[in-house]
Amino acid sequence: MKQKGLLIYITCLMLAICDYTYAHDFEVDNIYYKIISKADKTCKVTNNSGKENSYSGNVTIPEIITYDNEEYSVTEIDNNAFKNCIKLKSVNLPSSIIKMGNFCFNGCLLLSSFSVPENLEILPSNCFNGCISLEKIELNKIKKISSFCFKGCSSIEEIKIPASVTEIGDNDVFCGCVSLKTLTFEDGSEKLKLGYYDSEHRRGLLGDCPIDSVYMGRNLSYKSCDSYSSGTSALNPFDNGNGRNNTLRSVYISNGVSELSQKLFYNCEKLEHVYGMQNISQIGDYVFHGTAIKKITIGDKVITIGNNILSNCSALENVIIGNGIQDFTSKQIFYNSNKIKNIYIGKGLKSFGANCFCSEYGGTSHNSTPSPLSNANVFLFSDEVSSNYYYDANNGMCYWGGLPRDVKVLYVINPERYQTLFGKDYNLKPMFVFNETTLEYTGKTPELLYNNYVEDFDVSFDNATTPKDAGSYNTNVTVKFATEGWEVSAEIPCSYKITKAPLNVVANSIQRVYGEENPKLSCTYIGFKNNETEDVLTSRPVLTTTANKESNAGTYPIYCTGGDAKNYSLKCEAGTLTVNKASQEISWEQDFENLSVGNEIELKAKSSAELPVKYKSSDNSSVIVTSKNGKQYAYILKSGITVLTAYQSGDINHEEADEVNKVISVQTTGIDDINTENGTTTYYNIDGTKTIRNSNGIVIVKGKHRTKKILEMK
Fold first, then answer.
1. Within this chain, do residues 421 and 293 fall inside the same structural domain, yes or no?
2. pLDDT tens-digit profile of 581-633?
3. Can you give the pTM of this predicted structure?
4. Band of pLDDT at residue 15, cut at 50, 70 and 90
5. Are both 154 and 169 inside the same structural domain?
6. Where is average pLDDT lowest: 107-116, 417-426, 508-517?
7. Do 92 and 113 touch, CB atoms closer than 8 A?
8. Does residue 343 contact residue 295 with C-beta atoms inside 8 Å?
9. Of 376, 482, 490, the residue nearest 434 (C-alpha)
10. Quick check: is 426 in a domain?
11. How far apart are CA 219 and CA 145, in angstroms?
12. Are residues 689 and 654 part of one domain?
């Protein structure tokens, strides 16, 4: 049996030596190949009969090669194929490559960049281990990165893990990448599994990497052990040595991330800035334990948080716990985080569990130990908390409870409610108070006066819930509190009064002419708010005046009375109606041509106002105006040119009319010009005595057919 076993061992050894001696099957263009399958016509790139350092310079691997009159597809890179090729500068691989072997590029000192073939799914163990010049790597559609893959790649400054990668190996994948500062897990929906230290290799995924910033585009899962045989504490995937990370400063967590697994950033002692986290719903134990975070917002989608998630955070000052948390069942959230100034708790909270914020702490006795929140203001937006765990031991000297009783101030929406619920152990104050006040109606949401005690938060009111009409109100106003990255609303009790705004109603002063109907009466409103009009009046003022059509010219009051409005107090002012005198015209259609001395003419001018027209003569020695029986006449005394004027001076209701003039021209006529048919003419003096033809002065001539003619003789 022993001889048989020895024979088998020798046989295997000879086969191994034979395989090592004849490691490649053929060579084409200084590239060595080994046939994988003659039937499938596939081959892989290998080295020169097992010798390392077989390649140098720039190497391009073809997709198809011809050997022994047969075409072979190049589908693999053999184990150790380019290992320790210290003069190799670049390698271009075809898309036909679907597999690469372990150590395939290990120790290629001059290799500065590499693009993974698009059909390759796994980067093998130690693939680029020791490639100290490698600066740029394109991982394309890779699915798995194996252990030690990039170990010692000291020139890489940035690594982008594509969404196709679902697993990164357990041991030292990036260990020794002493220039690696930026790590990006690109956005993706599938969870990425990360490795952890094992009992032999404790440098971890990022050992000795000076990681400064991380972009986390999807959920990460990783193996986490609580202890090792040597007693090392539990580690996180970003540990870069000695159970902690001392370089990571900032992390952006995208909307593709819904959970933060336990100890994700455990003891990342320089981590100060955490951005994003908008879509997180679950945070595991110890996630931010031991970090340098100063402020953090746990968003509204988070419904559970683990134990000690913010413990040992020596720089932590401000914490926002969103509206999704209903019960604090986690333990010691802020244990040993002693610099907290403000904690903001959303409106979803209903109860505080035992030791939720810290472990047991001193009570009110002189030798008690303060809680980590003894200098903190706690702003509790919830008005639904119904329980607060409380256990008193050792006669009040020690507490195991929920919300520590020595918090600096507990600000709440409704202090009276929490005074009843919590007793007198807390320094309770309202976080927001409306000042009871009296305001005048403006037509807009009232500018209520208030005091806001919530530090670093802006406030605004929901206009839809704030009455603006005149009246007295005892109501709840929806107030929105907002700070960078988070907001919450609360119903705040509010009492205030809105008085009616003054509204002046002035009757518009108007004018009309005597004898006309009164125009429509109107008024002007002074004091409407926010572009409102008289349409908001519940009843309109009544306008009246004492004047009518027959009222004499003069000034009459326009009274304004009544009117009502929900939001206005009306004050009415009277106006005036002025009745002006009517105008009038004189019409005079008489013809004053062909007149002679001695003619008497009835004057018939008319006033449009039907008032009596008077007359005057410009020369009473030529034409005189006389009156008889209520009528007026013009009597022509002698020849010449005279202006006869008709005028009407007006009365209480009428203006003076424009004068109308008529010109009366009477020419001197010789006696020889008066003839009769039979030549019989008789002459008379003005006193009626007969005279001769050539008499001087006024002569009355009487003929057979011309009864009377008054002439001036010379």
1. yes
2. 999 999 999 999 888 888 999 999 999 999 999 999 999 999 999 999 989 99
3. 0.69
4. very low
5. yes
6. 417-426
7. no
8. no
9. 490
10. yes
11. 17
12. no
Domain membership flag for residue 11: no
Answer yes or no: is 652 within a domain: yes
- Average pLDDT score over the chain: 87
Residue 264 and residue 184 share a domain? yes
Instruction: Please state, as a whole number, how many other Cβ atoms lie within 10 Å of the Cβ of residue 287.
Output: 23
Q: Read off the pLDDT of each residue in 501-512 and give the average, rounded to a whole number.
A: 97
Burial string for 666-705 (b: 16+ CB within 10 Å, else e) reads beebebeebeeeeeebebbeeeeeebeeeeeebbbbbbee
Do 145 and 169 touch, CB atoms closer than 8 A?
Answer: yes
Residue 226's pLDDT is 43
Report pLDDT digits (tens) over 28-39: 999 999 999 999
| Distance of alpha carbon 306 from alpha carbon 316, whole angstroms | 17
Estimate to the nearest angstrom the gap between the alpha carbon of 52 and the chain centroid: 65
| CA angle 129–134–136, rounded 5-degree value | 125
Choice among 95-104, 181-190, 361-370 with the minimum mean pLDDT: 361-370
CB 65 within 8 A of CB 33: yes
Euclidean distance between CA atoms 532 and 433, whole angstroms: 32
Contact 57, 87 (CB under 8 A): yes
Letter for the amino acid at 276? G
Q: Residue 40's domain is classified under what CATH number?
A: 3.80.10.10
pLDDT of 366 strictly over 70: no
Q: Cα 92–98–99 angle (5° rounding)?
A: 90
675 in the same domain as 661? no
Distance of CA 475 to the CA centre of its chain: 27
More reliable by pLDDT, 389 or 63: 63
pLDDT tens, position by position, 658-709: 999 999 998 765 444 454 445 577 777 666 677 776 666 666 667 655 546 6
Asked whether residue 274 falls in the same domain as residue 153, the answer is yes
Last residue of a domain, one of 496, 512, 529: 496
Planar angle of CA 343, 380, 337, nearest 5 degrees: 25
Question: 402, 430, 458 — which closes off a domain?
Answer: 430
The order of strands in the sheet holding 554-561 is 510-513, 575-580, 554-561, 542-545
Question: What gap in Å lies between CA 553 and CA 513, rounded to an integer?
Answer: 8
Q: Which residue has the tokens 């009466």?
A: 521
Q: What CATH number is associated with residue 573?
A: 3.10.430
User: For the chain, how many structural domains are there in total?
Assistant: 7
More confident residue, 152 or 390: 152
Is residue 517 in a domain? yes
Domain identity same for 266 and 158: yes
Does 425 lie in the same domain as 288? yes
| pLDDT: which is higher, 364 or 140 | 140
For residue 164, the enclosing domain spans 143-279
The residue written with tokens 């691989």 in the block is 93
